[in-house]
Amino acid sequence: MARLEAVRLLLVFACMSGFKLFQMDVKSEFLNGIVNEEIYVSQPPDFEDYKYLEYVYKLKKALYGLKQAPRQWYERLSHFLLSHEYERGKVDKTLFIKKVGSDIILVQIYVEDIVFDSSNAKLCENFVKAMQGEFEMSMMGELSFFLGLQIKQSKEGIFVCQSKYCKDILKKFEMEACKAATTPMSTN
Questions:
Q1: Hey, what's the torsion of the CAs at 157, 160, 164, 165, to 10 degrees?
Q2: Which contiguous run of DSSP H or E holds residue 22?
Q3: Taking the C-alpha atoms of 156, 162, 168 and 173 in order, what is their torsion angle to the nearest 10 degrees?
């Protein structure tokens, strides 16, 4: 899983390079992971076969809640990207880079979210087609919300804030009507 620091670095690189960040979302990402080991599960409630109550199911694909599911999904996705001439980052293993001539495309993986940018719009289009051809994915468009960060991309730069996150926290703890203060506690 990508760390928040890696996402911040990607934002900085995109801002400095004048790239436009885009986002894709994988539908049922864990169901895309193929299980490489023998895993058995008991018959789920309301789906028992009463003739064979002692039977269990052998999994062919990962399930939600299975501790191997995220690893299996990442392995399948990384194998797909590596087979399409992407290189895995040396420090951040969730960053994939592909160079085509003088152009570059960067792909950052965070569980079911994929953030990418490129110096060439055609590379982005090819990436989207390849991913949607292999996996069930939806193109979210320009990156605007990711990991609790609200992201606004413009010609002046990339602006990041967490006002929605703060409002959600206030709502969760029923503090929307609390008195606002510039400094939450006494300065002395």
A1: 170
A2: strand 22-26
A3: -150
Helix, strand, coil % over all residues of the chain, rounded to 5:
30, 30, 40
The tokens describing 24, both together, are 């894709």
CA distances in angstroms from 147 to 1, 4, 30, 115, listed in the order given: 12, 8, 19, 11
Residue 177 lies in a domain: no
Split into its structural domains, the chain has a count of 1
Residue span of the structural domain in which 52 resides: 4-162
Question: Residue 154 phi/psi, 5° resolution?
Answer: -145, 180
Within 10 angstroms of residue 160's Cβ, the number of other Cβ atoms is 14
CATH number at residue 119: 3.30.70
Cβ atoms of 95 and 11 closer than 8 Å: no
Determine, yes or no, domain membership for 45.
yes
3-class secondary-structure state, position 8: helix
Residue-wise pLDDT for 21-58, tens only, equals 999 988 765 555 566 677 777 777 887 888 888 888 77
- Model-level pTM greater than 0.85? no
Confidence of residue 60 (pLDDT cuts 50, 70, 90): low
Confidence of residue 82 (pLDDT cuts 50, 70, 90): very high
168 in a structural domain:
no
Residue 61: name the closest of 80, 47, 41, 84 by CA. 41
